[in-house]
Specification:
Blueprint: E1 16-21, E2 27-32, E3 36-41, H1 46-49, E4 53-56, E5 59-62, E6 65-68, E7 73-77, E8 82-87, E9 91-95, E10 102-107, H2 110-115
Antiparallel strand pairs: 1-2, 2-3, 3-4, 5-6, 7-8, 8-9, 9-10
């Protein structure tokens, strides 16, 4: 492939930290330093582009202060059809791509980091 097949503008405002392709190669996940994740589809048709979304994550609210952590890593689990995102204090969130909410929040557990191949 010696040429550009598609040119895309990210819908995330700040620096991208990680890009990972879905296992089926139909979409990809972008993560950024602002604590956001975007799911975008490669098919340029309008009906597929309506399915793309972005959401806030990796935020911890202490009293009145909200701490926002960059999303440093994204990894997919092929068997369970999920993806995980990780950030600095060795915490990860596990998501189902069809739902925009996280399924599980794990902090300071090293075995899950190894399973998902997230090396922070």
């Amino acid at each position: 492939m010696g040429y550009v097949q598609q040119r895309r503008e990210s819908n995330l405002k700040y620096q991208t930290r990680c890009i990972r392709s879905f296992p089926n190669q139909q979409a990809y996940v972008l993560s950024s330093i602002e604590g956001r994740v975007a799911v975008e589809y490669l098919d340029p048709s309008p009906e597929m582009q309506k399915k793309k979304y972005a959401f806030k994550c990796h935020r911890i609210k202490d009293e009145k202060i909200e701490k926002i952590y960059p999303v440093n890593a994204v990894a997919f689990h092929h068997e369970y059809n999920t993806f995980a995102t990780g950030y600095y204090p060795l915490c990860i969130y596990i998501y189902r791509p069809t739902y925009m909410l996280y399924m599980l929040y794990i902090c300071y557990i090293y075995i899950y980091i190894y399973i998902y191949n997230i090396y922070i």
